[in-house]
Design brief:
By secondary structure, this protein is mainly beta. The protein has two domains: 85 residues, Immunoglobulin-like, CATH 2.60.40; 52 residues, no CATH class. It is 6% helix and 50% strand. The protein has one helix and eleven strands.
């Protein structure tokens, strides 16, 4: 019997300087042992909005997958830029992160996630701009506390 799959939408923000290049964007999936489970996929990658440099794709993962997604984009000058994000599938966690409310606290530059009761806090992320400074206006990266 095949493992049940979970479909997630994953995004990456390469910035406006690398906008309008969806054909040059790929992603790979690596498990926690460093083995590629999917290498340089370019299927279904799209740009979120016009000229944003933010790209996304729906990714199918095994319910027990734990590892990283490695994004890459080839710029018009031929240089390759990488970004990565952790991916851990826990159906309970995924459910809470997708059905509960979330809010951004502008005073602390944090994104706060709640369980589906919209009261019980389940996670906080520090929000940073592309220079690593706390921001809610130009979020480039979120870091789990």
């Amino acid at each position: 019997m095949a493992d049940a799959q979970v479909k997630l939408v994953k995004t990456v923000n390469f910035g406006k300087g690398l906008s309008d290049l969806p054909a040059n964007v790929h992603f790979s999936l690596y498990n926690t042992l460093g083995a590629a489970t999917l290498f340089r996929s370019s299927g279904s990658i799209y740009q979120v909005g016009s000229g944003t440099g933010i790209y996304g794709s729906e990714v199918s993962l095994s319910q027990d997958f734990s590892g990283s997604i490695l994004w890459e984009v080839t710029a018009s000058n031929g240089s390759v830029i990488f970004a990565s994000d952790e991916v851990e599938i826990d159906s309970r966690l995924t459910r809470h992160f997708t059905v509960g409310q979330w809010e951004i606290d502008k005073n602390t530059n944090e994104m706060i996630f709640y369980q589906d009761d919209n009261v019980t806090e389940m996670g906080r992320f520090n929000l940073k701009d592309d220079k690593g400074e706390g921001s809610t206006a130009s979020v480039f990266k979120r870091i789990r506390q």
